[in-house]
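ZP: hey, is the coenzyme a persulfide complex queued? I don't see it on the tracker
AM: it wasn't, my bad. submitting now with these inputs:
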Amino acid sequence: MIRDQETLTLLLDSVRRFVREVLVPHEQEVAETDTIPPAVVAQMRALGLFGLSVPEQYGGLELSMEEEVMVAFEIARTSPAFRSLIGTNNGIGSQGILLDGTEAQKQHYLPRMASGEIIGAFALTEPGAGSDAGSLQTAAVRDGDHYLISGTKRFITNAPEASVFTVMARTDPAKKGASGVSAFIVERGTPGIALGKTDKKMGQRGAHTCDVIFENCRVPASAIIGGKEGMGFKTAMKVLDKGRLHIAAVCVGAAERMLADALRYAMERQQFGQPIAEFQLIQAMLADSKTEIYAARCMVLDAARRRDNGEDISTEASCCKLFASEMCGRVADRSVQIHGGAGYVSEYAAERFYRDVRLFRIYEGTSQIQQLVIARNMIKAAQA
Ligand code: COS
């Protein structure tokens, strides 16, 4: 759903220009220093990038899903670390509050997330609970009007920067699965929270993850999202449905960028007396990449429009995440191949992107989890 084509065109133009003129020139510096310069972050805030999906009444741009994925196509045409910084506030860091929070929770947190004043993070994964998210062990024990949260969360994106965490914790130890889980909003300054050291990752330098350790961290009962126990796993799954679609759009944008770089290189690089782009074996890699990117783009737009129409897109979001992230991996591989030796050295972006995009097939649900979600939903629908 596009609410106002003219406003959207202006937004897409300014994001495109910002990516080309500010973010791309900073890519190498971010990769080398593992830091996004504060001046760049300030520009991201000024553009409204932290509040793309937050409703206007809470200070955001209130983009529809279709509009949001179109912005994601553009913002992903540069180092994924930039997108990662704004990603949690638009996605997994804010959506739990937005989808299931009380009005007071929304008013308290969303305006500051939309402006980028505070960063939100989503704490689901644990050392022993990754793909099997429902088995999480972090406990929240009732203590009068409060809960005491204890446990360790792992690989939490933007945790080093975050001021507020959506924490999934077990409020009912008698229920081993998903129904015993509640989602809490926990502020960074609360006593009993410690951060582990920042993880050394394969790629996406400039985007940070670390452990978040809770030890008798005391939060008021009003910190439960929506005020009701036992809803936290469902909240997390709904957040991930949207998140997976967003990541699929990011995969499209990143693949478009890698293909543009590979095409330019193939047209410049001369071998056997002509540009390598003239060779049909190179052309096959270019054409396959173009075709697969087009397919992923169409899928993402279709699923986004369905979500805007109010449809349940759990299956489609997983289809998009599965296809687009695997496609992105294939394009990354071909981009390195087209660059030849130049694709293996860090002078060219192909090598960095190859490492950066590897994460897309893993986080917000691995490709195998997407397959499982798709097939389970198919079986459920057939049984209904
Ligand atoms: N929207 C709303 N509710 C959902 C849902 C969705 N997309 N998916 C599941 N639920 C509900 C189910 O309906 C079920 O509710 P009832 O008990 O009332 O029937 C409940 O949540 C539990 O669902 P399910 O039985 O399917 O849970 P499982 O433990 O079998 O696990 C998977 C489901 C594997 C799909 C889930 O654990 C998952 O997505 N794992 C990957 C986690 C992940 O993406 N981690 C990445 C890190 S976070 S960035």
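AM: back. Residues 232-268 form the longest helix (37 residues).
ZP: great, adding it to the tracker
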